[in-house]
Amino acid sequence: MQKRPILLALLMGTLAIIAFGALNGARAATPDDLNRDADAALHMLVTTNPAAANVAKNAQAVLIFPNIVKAGLIFGGAYGEGELKQGEKLDGYYNTVTASWGFQAGAQSYGYVVFLMNDKAMKYVHETHGWEIGTGPTVVVVNEGVAKNLTTSTLKDDAYAFIFDQQGLMASLSLEGTKISRIKNP
Known about the structure:
globular; alpha+beta; six-stranded mixed sheet
């Protein structure tokens, strides 16, 4: 009977170490690597997703997170680094952190892009010390159903997020509980 808690603690510790290692792998090696990865991710998204291309044409800026790594067993986390661009101009580097708990097990990598559509969204990103998705500007996570209804006349929200390039073994994915913060350098 006393071996179960010890085994559970060992299992949880091992998984935490694995998850930390996986999350640490989401860091870009250099700013040049991150710039290259972000440009490639945005290009891939807008060339393969017509809704993203349509939103990109109307966006004031874009937050690009080319590689997020998520891992968990009951407790989970996700981490990645990205950049904010206004047109071709780099406006700064950011990280995204998510913490979760509940029925979950596995690991996954993905990317996401948040198109900032108006001054309210831009001001919020620049003036806060960490933007929690779900507070501040309205962010619409674009899935296939939402994408079918997006036109230039229906783009009324502050920001639109596209999740792409999902790989791994976690069934569900959302941006709830995600915090985006400015960093000096990746």
